[in-house]
Amino acid sequence: VRREAENPLNRWLSRLYTPALRVALHKPKVTLLLALLLTLSSLWPLQHIGSEFIPPLDEGDLMYMPTSYPGISTGTAREILQQTDKLIATLPEVATVFGKVGRAETATDPAPLTMIETFIQLKPRDQWRPGLTLDALKQELDALVRIPGLTNAWVMPIKTRIDMLATGIKTPVGVKIAGPKLQQLQAIGEQLEVLLMEVPGTASAYSERVAGGRYIKVDIDRGKAARYGLNIADVQQVIATAIGGMNITQTVEGLERYPVNVRYPQEYRDSPEQLALLPIVTPAGQRIALSDVASIFIEDGPAGIKSENARINGWTFVDIEGVDVGRYVERARAHIAEHLQLPPGYSISWSGQYEYMERAKAKLAYVVPLTLLIIVVLLYMNFRSFAPVAILMGTLPLALAGSAWLMYVLDYNFSIAVGVGLIALAGVAVETGVIMLVYLDQAWHALQKEDEEPSVAALNDAVLQGAGLRLRPVLMTAGATIVGLLPILFGSGTGSEVMSRLAAPMVGGMISSVLLTLLVIPVIYLLWKRRAL
Questions:
Q1: Taking the model in full, what pTM does it have?
Q2: Cα–Cα distance, 61 to 159 (Å, whole number)
């Protein structure tokens, strides 16, 4: 204790700290009132902080995933893809552009022609125009690529793939409409598309036309086919071979093998009228046209049928800008509930990143209380009394006030990373409080040994002395935590968005935690022991 008191740094800090603590101990009610006002002031930034699952990660590249209306032809889809690639490549920040439409011959990529995927590789940030950010680049691209029939969506490649695997939704917010009839699902989706565009923060909204597909139907007349000695299988074989093609052999090129597929030239099968003229040879050797035994026409039908929980679904994709996911969904829900009346048997559910966020909230609802309970148990095991535990846990909200204000200043939203940072802050804030309470207890016990009936003035001096001995350790603990987290808070690069949200609550909370530990806890301890006297 003597070395601590004679330490030059501690003496210099005590000259600043002791007068402030003496004033706080002289006016304990005023000190507690100011601490309460500081804690209540955090309610204002809390009301203006949004919520999200994880902050948007800057993966370095960008992906353009527009959605078109069903029934688009292969040629038109190819032309649109070429046009969008050329427009995107005009920006100086774009290094390469590679677009894909349709799907590969695999069951793991069920992408229709209506979904275009364009991977945009960006140049290093030092080669961008001065002052240009990623959000500004997205806005510039969105204003540049405006093609009728396309609903734009600018997303991150890796994150979007993960979202599509988990929920099927490629945009930050999605609405899944469930019901028995496809036509009704499409009608509800079209109403949602209009209503969502009225919600502030909507960048784009597109509802799938689940019943808007176009099909060429070949309706075989069994009677006519029988007159020519044909059955259904014979006619279908001709259609499958002439239109779809058939592998008749295989060519060997060294170690590589390629199938040889034969079918009619495209000009013989590019319209219902041409299909009607396809020749068929009967078993009797007679040559007839396909229209002699079948009717060929275009028919509307579902482009694809999705189902979840044994119910048919129609999905609506919503891209947002300038607003967090949680606040946007709240506004959209209220707007839709006011203007949309669902028929009996139909329901809507919100998906995408919002679905992740709701799951995370459900887990944090019991993880946070469990963490606080563990802290209470450990504190009681240390002090063997409920009074110190109540002091530390009761003053913990003051430590969280600094977190709320710093997050508001940095314009951060609540997310999983922020939740983890707040849990870590609770442990560190209680730790520094324990350091202060232990030395206050030692000063109190030393006073009781010297004087069996100590006065209030002696108690005041004991608290002042005990708190002064812990000044440097408290400041060093808080300073080491803050300085160690500053590079994470202000770092840059891929993944820094998550790490900064993890560090911000701890940095802001440790600043207010120092005020809590150095001023508020000694005042509350003084009032507690004064009452005992």
A1: 0.72
A2: 11
487 contacts: CB under 8 Å, gap ≥ 6: none
The answer to whether the CB of 375 falls within 8 A of the CB of 393 is yes
Contact residues for 170 (Cβ-Cβ < 8 A; gap 6+): 65, 153, 155, 160, 163, 164, 317
> Could you tell me what percent of the chain has a pLDDT over 70?
96
Model pLDDT, residue 7: 61
CB 82: neighbour CB atoms within 10 A?
12
Angle at 348 between CA 344 and CA 354, to 5 degrees: 165
Distance CA 267, CA 181 (A): 37
Tokens 């969502």 sit on residue: 196
Q: What is the C-alpha to C-alpha distance for residues 497 and 54, in angstroms, rounded to an integer?
A: 9
Tell me the per-residue pLDDT of 221-253, one tens digit each, with 9 for 90 and over.
999 989 888 889 888 988 888 888 888 899 999
Q: Is the pLDDT of residue 167 over 70?
A: yes
Contact 260, 195 (CB under 8 A): no
For residue 383, the model assigns a pLDDT of 80
Q: How far is 41 from 508, CA to CA, in rounded Å?
A: 14
For residue 298, the model assigns a pLDDT of 87
* Helix spans in 343-470 (H): 353-383, 386-394, 396-410, 416-450, 456-469
* C-alpha to C-alpha distance for 489 and 485, rounded to whole angstroms: 6
Q: Which residues contact 148 (CB under 8 A, 6 or more apart)?
A: none
Distance CA 511, CA 479 (A): 9
Q: H or E element: which one contains 262?
A: strand 256-262
Model confidence band, residue 72 (pLDDT cutoffs 50, 70, 90): confident
With b for 16 or more beta-carbon neighbours within 10 A and e for fewer, the 32-44 pattern comes to beebeebbeebee
CB 204 within 8 A of CB 153: yes
DSSP per residue, 288-342: EEGGGTEEEEEEEE-S--EEETTEEEEEEEEEE-SS-HHHHHHHHHHHHHHH--P
pLDDT digits (tens, 9 = 90+) for 180-211: 888 888 889 889 988 998 888 888 888 888 87
Residue 326 has pLDDT above 60, yes or no: yes
Distance CA 216, CA 439 (A): 86
Mean pLDDT, range 59-69, rounded to an integer: 85
Give the DSSP H/E element, type plus range, for residue 256. Answer: strand 256-262
3-state secondary structure 238-251: HHHHHHHCEEEEEE
| Per-residue model confidence (pLDDT) at position 3 | 58
Residues present in the chain in total: 533
**Amino acid at position 26, single letter:** H
- pLDDT greater than 60 at residue 355: yes
190 near 208, Cβ under 8 Å?
no
